[in-house]
Amino acid sequence: MTDLPRHVAIIMDGNGRWATSRGLGRVRGHEAGIRTVEQVVEHCARRGIGVLTLYAFSSENWQRPPAEVGALMHLLRVFLRRETARLRRNDIRLRAIGRRERLEPVVREELEEACRRTADCSGMVLNLAISYGSRDELTTAVRRLAREVRAGTLDPDAIDEECLTAALDTRGLPDPDLLIRTGGEYRVSNFLLWQAAYAELAFTATLWPDFTTAELDGILADYGRRERRFGKTSEQVAS
Ligand code: FPP
After folding, report:
1. Which of 30, 51, 132, 190 is spaced 20 to 30 Å from 64 by Cα?
2. How far is the CA of 15 from the centre of ligand 1 (A)?
3. What is the pTM (predicted TM-score) of this model?
4. If you measure from the C-alpha of residue 189 to the centroid of ligand 1, how many angstroms do you get, rounded to a whole number?
């Protein structure tokens, strides 16, 4: 019997479909998605989850129509402005992974300011994946290690899993135990590919704006009933 996951990661899919099925523009779906974000963040903190990683904007999302990209960036700023005080009250520390340098300076500054303002919080870590792609993260990490090798500060034979893990944006965070995807698609979309090697996967057809804390509790309960073997046998895990 496994208990609560230490790290939950969520691919929040389905905002666009939620909106178009109501005859609304896609951005209205993202706005509705923010409300779910707020509820899920507070709920996870209350339940005692250690780290919650939310896939808010992928490297590939830059290819969306400029108006949608602009709206998502605007919503991120709205979220940061509205939520930072509440994060502090709930003792939640904000962190971000992804290519910050691709963000507009004003968005980047607000993100960094929110991270700074919650830096002394010691409860849950809310880790926002923004302008994030796992292949991009891995490529950047490998490039960094290669530079160290060239500089003579790293022996190639010393490069092990731990070393690569420490070169990723997620350094210092435990690997995700549970990866949830809403919106009815069955893929991982370039999200935490290295870190989620042994994550339990949970897929739901519920579109992100309709996702509730009750459904999350159901997924957490199901996770608690799974046997995590990490390549070992049931007998080994039980002993
Ligand atoms: C995927 O739905 C969702 C996104 C690309 C963005 C997720 C963003 C939010 C939930 C709001 C912003 C979040 C924060 C933390 C500020 P989709 O647009 O691909 O939906 P579809 O598959 O139905 O088209």
Report:
1. 51
2. 5
3. 0.96
4. 13
